[in-house]
Amino acid sequence: MSKFLSYEDRMIIAQRLQENASFGTIGKELGKDRTTIAKEIKKYSYDKKSGRLGYPYNPCKFRTTCKAKRICGTSCTHQSAYKCSLCSECTLHCSDFVEDVCSVKNKPPYVCNGCSQLPKCTLLKRIYDPADAHERAHHAVSESRTGIMSNEDDIARINRIISPLVKNGQSLHQIYLDHVDELMCSEKTLYNYVDAQLFDIRNIDLPRKVKYRPRYKKPEFKVDRGCRIGRSYADFQKYLGAHPETTIVQMDSVIGRVGGKCLLTIHFVETSLMLAFLRDTNTSASVIEIINLLDKVLGAKTFNRLFPIILTDNGSEFSNPKEIEKRSAIPYNRTKIFYCDPSAPYQKGACEVNHELIRRILPKGSSFDELTQQDIILMMNHINSYKRKKLNNRSPYETFSFYYGEDVLKKLGCSPVAAENIILKPKLLKK
């Protein structure tokens, strides 16, 4: 008998939770120990922010007695402006907010599935969904069998140990011997991290290493091997089902010469506007740097409006979603990352189609090494000024301007190009 739970097992667990059965009862039915059931539920349940019929999600302890009005300002346009407790955003602005946490999450069954108050509850809920649990468990098993499990906290900790010592002239081998108990990884892993540019040091800081040619093609390096958990394409579709009017942004990379400069493309699906940024290397650090720059240039409010969710592929450059999602200055995420299924580029087809216009100017195999960001901005201005039938014969620039205004386009570095001057051939960037 397999030691892993099947989908049918998880269906039974969900059904029995609905019936308020104990872990022991569920375990006997499935032939598993009660601790196995408890670990399964605690590990693969998820938090859900939802209200009840006619009322939004509101975890405030004073939600039933609060009479506050317009705490976010007199310009509030919500229908519920007369009573802030009926607004889903009141907790973000209220200085008297105190979170009310249900005790169910701290004691068996740890989830709200069988709670009689669930239809009436506006607090943060903990839900065990068999389909979601099975997918996350499948990914966890799959990822555990490939590569190195790492996260940004571990990498930052190791960086603090080795980078100062390398800058003092010590080798990674020497550092590893002296700090093996602190590092908690192999010496080879340290070299992999340096190659992936996850530290403050680079290969050039390792005198002996730059003398040697790579003996084999290194496998794709992912910062966080569990990055897809809760961010799969199925999760993306589930999110859109709950938020059907959400603006979708697709993100991808365009590769030039192998090992050379590359592009990060950001495509606004609704308007077909695409941004492109030149990067020296195709790493997660370079992607995070660009997202942080956009956040700074646009401002938090505009960034949140433009980038509610981002759909991308499974490239290693997108494998640090927490750093893309979080805004360090404010304890709230600025966006939400989702991933397409492996080998399914059609799931972000709008972005892929727009890449065809880039390839008219920069054919496959051409080098980007001699290009500058100004060259890329020029190219994208021509592409974004090109009228599209699906936009009612308007250009992406015109459509984006209609939705978000000229000021936002200027902040993004976009300018219109007259129709008679548009060039979509390599000669546009010939110097």
> What is the averaged pLDDT score?
85
Task: Please identify, by name, the CATH architecture of the largest domain.
Answer: 2-Layer Sandwich
> What's the CATH superfamily of the largest domain, by name?
Ribonuclease H-like superfamily/Ribonuclease H
The CATH topology of the largest domain is Nucleotidyltransferase, domain 5
Report the strand count.
9
N/C terminus separation: 67 Å
Helix content: 25-40%
Number of helices: 16
Structural class: alpha/beta
Q: Under the CATH scheme, which class of the largest domain? A: Alpha Beta
Describe this structure in a few short sentences.
The chain is an alpha/beta fold.
Q: How would you describe the overall organization of this protein?
A:
This protein is α/β, with parallel strands linked by helices and 431 residues long. It has helices at 7-18, 23-30, 34-44, 90-93, 130-144, 152-167, 172-183, 187-195, 233-242, 284-298, 300-306, 321-325, 349-361, 373-384, 396-404, 406-411; strands spanning 46-49, 124-127, 248-255, 262-268, 273-279, 309-312, 326-327, 330-333, 336-339. It has three domains: 7-144, no CATH class; 152-211; 233-429, Ribonuclease H-like superfamily/Ribonuclease H (Nucleotidyltransferase, domain 5), CATH 3.30.420. It contains 16 helices and nine strands. The strands form three sheets. The chain has a five-stranded mixed beta sheet with strand order 5-4-3-6-9, with helices on both faces. A two-stranded antiparallel ribbon has the order 1-2. A two-stranded antiparallel sheet has the order 7-8. The longest helix has 16 residues, at 152-167. The N and C termini lie far apart (67 Å). The mean pLDDT is 85.
